[in-house]
Amino acid sequence: MKNKVSNIIYWTPRIISIIFVCFLFLMSLDVFSSDLNFWQTVTGLFMHNIPALLLLIIVIISWKYEIVGGITFILAGILYIILLIKSPFEWYKLSWAIQISGSAFLIGISFLINWFKKNKKKA
What we know:
With 123 residues, the chain is mainly alpha-helical. It has four helices and no strands.
C-alpha cells in the first residue's frame, strides 16, 4: 500500500504537468481563426507557444529535480495572475485565473510534496 501511494505521489505532478502543457499548446491554436497570411500565422503560433515551450522544458528538468518544477509552476501561476491584474478587469478573466493559475499551483504543490517525500527518505 505504501509503495502504491509513493507511485501516485511520484507520477501525479508529471502527468498533470504534461496535460497542462498540452492544454496550453491547444489554446494557442486560436491563431488559425484570424485572417492572417502564412508567415503571420507561423509567427503568431510561435509567440503563443513560448510559455508552453518554456513549461515543457521545466517539466523535463523537473522529472529529476522536483524542486525546480515546484517553484517554477507556482511562480508561473503568480505571474499569470499579475498579468491578468494589469489588464482591465472583466469577470470572465476570473475563470481564466482559476483554470490556468490554479492548475499551475496544483502542479507546483504536487512537485513540492514529491520533493519533500524524496528528501524525507534520504534523511
